[in-house]
Amino acid sequence: MTDPHNSEPYSVHIQVRGYETDSQGHLNQAVYLQYAEHARWSALRHGGIEQGDLLARGVGPVALETTIRYLRELRAGDEVDVDCVFEWGEGKTFRMRQTVRKADGTVSAEVTAVGGILDLKARKLVPDPRQIFKELSANPDVFGL
Question: CA geometry: angle at 14 spanning 10 and 19, to 5°?
Fold first, then answer.
């Protein structure tokens, strides 16, 4: 998430591993989704929210829609930064925008996801996911709150 005091979004650094590539030597398309998910969970931890905190509260994050736009190939050994920016609107869902960027600045992929916070007992989305993030986070700036 973009910190109002810092123009850079939260990101994680990943090196593409050989076993993640396909028969053409490109990063397998499904692995981009894994990189995005890793960055999201890392952002949660950076903001002070652990998976156990969510479970103790009886809630969990859910992905409702994910779109990946592949722009440039990645190969084994390439190093990338995967950022994570949260966007809040009204209602039960929020958006996460992510960029997979090579060390030289080349954008390899753009990931956009719509998520929500599921009440694990009622099996319904909570009405205001921002409130959950605000209550559980030690560093709400990570989430743009």
Answer: 150
